[in-house]
Prior knowledge:
Elements: E1 3-9, E2 13-20, E3 29-34, H1 41-52, E4 59-64, E5 68-69, E6 72-74, E7 81-83, H2 84-91, E8 95-100, H3 101-109, E9 117-121, E10 131-136, E11 140-148, E12 151-156, H4 169-179, H5 193-205, H6 213-221, H7 224-234, H8 238-262, E13 267-271, H9 279-283, H10 286-292, H11 298-301, E14 306-309, H12 314-324
Helix pairs in contact: 3-12, 5-7, 5-8, 6-7, 7-8, 8-10
Amino acid sequence: MNYILAGDIGGTKTLLQISTAGNTYAPLLQKSYRSTDYADLPEMLDGFLHEAGISKIATACFALAGPVNSRQVQLTNLPWQVDADAIAARFAIPQIKLINDFEAVGWGIALLASADLLTLQTGHVQTQGTRLTVGAGTGLGVGWMSWHNNACTVHASEGGHMDFAPTDGTQYELLRYLQQRHSHVSYERIVSGPGLLAIYEFLRDSGRAVPTAQLVAAMAQEDGAAVIAHHAQQDTEPIARLALDLFMSIYGAFVGNVALMMLPRGGIYIAGGIAAKITPAMQQGAFLRAFHDKGRFADLLKTLPLHIVLNPQVGLLGANAAAQYREQQY
Length: 330
């Protein structure tokens, strides 16, 4: 039997799955790991494959949050270097592919059901129009899909590392604040989990809002960005609400910028670990207002379909699909 190993490897969480061909939705084993608990991917695979009790893997594909350099990847927000040939030799896997995590999201989009999507803007769909995937999590990913000869090609990018472009006075001050920390302030420094925390710190340090003792205590015990997002949506902490509103505006502006570049008439798909957890905030207006705020091209952006991906396994689905795709087609 041909066993397929798929992995979606991010700076915070890694999903691993073993399945057989054509059985993506009924894996033999699937587990989630905290990435930082392991020194590298082989250490994680040791335990996973031992638990699966399967020694012969026919093919594998790992989706990784970082630029793919041939057969190696240095993850951007995790101190791992993944070497496909070294893993192939260690675990006797004859074929291994490494792809960018948002390339995997692109593969996975085609496998989603309607219930896996929350539509923010219906737009006007072109069946074979370019599709755009964008998503904030530990980092900020971007990818797109184009059509040629009735086949879809998936493209990776590192678009999340484009220069942050502020659009108002507060955002200019945020940029100057972050320039004291980083030599280069990209959108990922802001539109990400760590970025939401940085916005909160900017609001606090600039005196725009003061956190309560209860919020500070909660952030010391749990993930700071998750605490901010929770209190913002509950509207129990003014500084959290301000931070999430600013985050939404910059997120929407970024997606609008990339949409103008790609003209994704086949749809925009907001993935990543954050959007699906804050859908009420995504629907309340700040995101779409900033997305549309492109002067003479506001009406054009209103024609583009825009969805939030609710399925957290879209990257894993995509890695599994890419593992089974023939090399000459891929």
